[in-house]
Design goal:
Distance between the termini: 34 Å
Strand content: 35-45%
Number of helices: 1
Number of strands: 37
Shape: flat
Low-confidence stretches: 1-16, 19-27
């Protein structure tokens, strides 16, 4: 009963104003009214955003300030963080990670020399900060990875990886209530890690598709995983593609591994491994010539590792003869873009852009109501919700635009940074010295 009451306390501040559970849906051709406009409770960074944004709980933070707002923009609490927990949004410095509990989240502090990073929990109901324990020393090497997980044996377990340059890595797990080391795993050679789970408990590039397993990496010819809810690593030998491993990308049923291309040939391989079996053999493999027309030349090839290969429920392989678009489960690629085109996520599909800014729909779905993308939406446009987009400008400047099903822009709002949806019906953004919330349909 106590847990139920705590959950209600967490949710009650959201059941008002902009966060009402059943609001009237605003069509794209209706300019929404402001739900609130209040003084900015947390300064933004140079881009107009915040290092910490937890949409589910309504918590935002930057530098040494974290606040929680309700549906009217009212500050429920404000917490001043210690210097070692100043929020920067950069791994290796202080940043935040999602935790399984709805009432707390974890902050990972900046690590001092020879030590693992300090950890603390931030209570979403009260804003109180509670320090957690860490081991007295850390293995040698650069800190590459930190996460906090809940397991069947230990509700608060932290995992960190430290790596020597071009050499071995050590993964350490410890009990955050005592600092006691629970286990260690050391590789013989270098390891390639999947991107960590983000603040929402999802993996960037595949957010909203499935829950994020805390840890995945490839080393010594083995695929190593820490699954959600488990307290030990799973390690199995796999037949890796030849070449330097460039990326490891876990999905719902597969782990994708790609090699890093090198000039002049820029050949690369992608292989997928089944998560439900222990088979060392890839479910499928594909060889292609890596070429991302929108990327700068890196080691003789047009390649930008920050461009996700998974977008809009599809796997894309950037081949010089035209990007391949398909699925990660079967490794089938029924769509190939034209040479010089590159894929950009648009709603739940892919559009093909060219270097001159023009684009086309390479696989239009039959529909009685055509959905067109206005020319104002360049490749940098970020989709915030159904029919709602953000166009970044210079520095802090930006613009929210609403697009109807015919591709007509129906209303615009200037912002001072990237907006975000706290819930499905409330769009929040900074506007100069104000925090603004508007209702919009998703």
């Amino acid at each position: 009963m106590r847990r139920v009451l705590l959950g209600l306390l967490v949710l009650l501040p959201l059941l008002a104003g902009c966060f009402a559970p059943s609001p009237p849906r605003i069509e794209a051709n209706e300019d929404p009214e402001e739900a609130f406009r209040v003084p900015l409770p947390v300064p933004t960074d140079a881009s107009g955003g915040w290092a910490l944004v937890n949409r589910r709980l309504g918590i935002i933070g930057q530098d040494r300030v974290a606040v929680r707002i309700d549906g009217d923009g009212k500050v429920l609490w404000r917490t001043t963080l210690p210097a070692e927990f100043a929020l920067t949004g950069r791994a290796g410095r202080a940043y935040a990670v999602a935790t399984p509990s709805a009432s707390v989240m974890t902050l990972v502090g900046a690590a001092s020399s020879g030590r693992l990073p300090p950890l603390a929990t931030l209570d979403s109901v009260t804003g109180s900060l509670t320090m957690l324990a860490a081991p007295s020393a850390r293995p040698p090497g650069k800190l590459r990875f930190v996460t906090v997980v809940s397991t069947t044996a230990n509700p608060w377990q932290a995992v960190a990886a430290t790596c020597l340059p071009g050499a071995s890595c050590t993964v350490t797990a410890w009990d955050t209530s005592t600092g006691l080391v629970l286990w260690k795993h050391r590789t013989h050679g270098p390891a390639v890690f999947a991107a960590p789970c983000n603040q929402e408990g999802e993996r960037d590039g595949v957010a909203g598709r499935w829950a994020c397993d805390p840890l995945a990496f490839v080393a010594d010819g083995r695929l190593v995983l820490l699954r959600r809810g488990e307290d030990r690593l799973r390690s199995r030998p796999v037949e890796l593609p030849r070449g330097d491993i460039g990326q490891v990308i876990p999905t719902l049923y597969r782990v994708l591994v790609t090699t890093a291309p090198h000039g002049p040939g820029c050949r690369a391989q992608a292989a997928a491994y089944d998560l439900t079996t222990e088979s060392p053999t890839p479910v499928w493999q594909r060889t292609f010539t890596w070429n991302q027309p929108q990327a700068a030349v890196h080691e003789g090839c047009r390649r930008d590792p920050s461009i996700p290969l998974l977008m809009a429920y599809r796997l894309t392989l950037p081949d010089v003869a035209g990007a391949l678009v398909g699925d990660d489960f079967h490794g089938e690629f029924p769509l190939r873009l034209k040479p010089g085109e590159y894929p950009v996520a648009d709603r739940n599909g892919i559009v093909a852009y060219r270097a001159d800014g023009s684009y086309r729909d390479p696989n239009p779905a039959p529909s009685r109501t055509p959905q067109r993308r206005p020319k104002e939406l360049d490749p940098t446009a970020k989709q915030l919700g159904q029919g709602v987009w953000y166009l970044p400008g210079r520095g802090r400047k930006g613009e929210i635009v609403a697009v109807d099903v015919y591709g007509k822009i129906t209303w615009r709002r200037s912002t001072s940074g990237l907006p975000f949806f706290l819930t499905s019906n409330c769009l929040v953004y900074a506007d100069g010295s104000s925090l603004v919330g508007i209702g919009a349909s998703t």
